[in-house]
Amino acid sequence: MVSLSDTTASAARTAGEQKQLAGNETHATVILRAGNLVKQFGDVRAVDGLSFGVEQGRCFGLLGPNGAGKTTTMEILEGILAPDEGSVHYRGKPLDHRFRQEIGIQFQATSLQDYQTVRETLEMFAAFYERRIDLAELAELCRLQEFLDRDTARLSGGQRQRLLLAIALINDPRLVFLDEPTTGLDPQSRRNFWSLIEGIKRAGKTVLLTTHYMEEAHRLCDEIAIVDKGRIIVQGAPDELLRQHFPAAVIRLPASALARHDQLPDDMVCSDGMIESFTDDVTVAIARLEGLGANLGNLKISAPTLEDLFLKLTGHTLRN
Fold first, then answer.
1. E-assigned strand segments in the chain
2. CA gap 254, 103 in Å, rounded
3. How far apart are the first and last CA of the chain?
4. Are 273 and 254 in contact (CB under 8 A)?
5. DSSP state for residue 111 in the 8-state scheme
6. Residue 154 per-residue DSSP state
7. Which tens digit of pLDDT belongs to each residue from 105-145?
8. Cα separation, 183 vs 190, whole angstroms
9. Is the pLDDT of residue 67 over 90?
10. 28: number of Cβ within 10 Å
11. How confident is the model at residue 319 (pLDDT cuts 50, 70, 90)?
12. How many Å apart are CA 22 and CA 110, to the nearest integer?
């Protein structure tokens, strides 16, 4: 049984091991690689030629609306579902017993054994693996110390998600799959969960995350791939993608703030009851609105978001 302090100390060694893997850049930096994945369900092509690599020690996010193919892709990457075409390689090799021992998975939904405490649940899952983290330290990491002797049926939503995260970490995995882990949580519980994931990253773990919460992806992910209809439509670091596609700021105000919308300049649009302008010069944009006689009482200025990016590239929002 290993401790979390052992895990943190081994993070640098893990990076060194990756560099020693024979040959090329793929083996040196990429822990998981998907190559031209395809999965068909009847007439629906759920995954349509997805290819990407997940770098060691980073958080990679798959983003997209429900039905985009995220969960199917995750199940293929986890070795649960076989692709119709394409391949998945872990540390340069096809998925094998080592892969299954070195990954952790938090599914969208997991049924827990009835009439079992948190401690008993962790002990049961620990027995499935050759390598295990010290349960006391795992409980501390996932903030479960106060609930170890509580029946799992009496956990709140946030406590349950922390238990499921602990189960995913129980074998000290190199790679952790998190499939929409904060769905259904209240905003405070969601932010608390984010801090746990950030702790996992600091310990040197690699994380593959699916989510439709754009604030979550922006905060946690080093790299994202936005998926729509089973295909990747854009991939890169979140801030870099936003810089590539948008000016520095977006100005929004209610459509009712301006009497005549036919006077709007070409770089200002009115959609879904809002007037919107993306601009690098907020002062000039506000002056133009004032010149049109707009009521600026409810004007809002913010940075462009990943939701804006998805809407620009696909014509619909991430929640559709």
1. 30-41, 44-55, 59-63, 85-90, 93-94, 103-106, 175-179, 206-211, 223-228, 231-236, 249-254, 268-271, 274-279, 300-302
2. 48
3. 45
4. yes
5. P
6. G
7. 998 777 888 889 999 999 999 999 988 899 999 999 899 99
8. 8
9. no
10. 16
11. low
12. 38
Nearest to 251 by CA among 231, 270, 224: 270
3-class DSSP state for residue 259?
coil
Cross-strand partners of 50: 37
Q: Which residues pair with 175 in a beta bridge?
A: 103, 206
d(CA 54, CA 85): 19
Please state the separation of Cα 134 from the chain's center in Å: 27
Which position has the higher pLDDT, 104 or 320?
104
CATH 3.40.50.300 fits 4-242, yes or no: yes
Give me the residue label for tokens 């302008």.
277
Residue spans of the domains in the chain: they are 4-242, 247-303
Tokens for 171, please give them.
């074998």
Q: What is the dihedral of CA 172, 173, 179, 183, to 10 degrees?
A: 20
Does the pLDDT of residue 253 top 90, yes or no?
A: yes
What residue has token string 């295990």? 132
pLDDT, tens digit, 9 for 90 and up, residues 161-195: 999 999 999 999 999 999 999 988 888 889 999 99
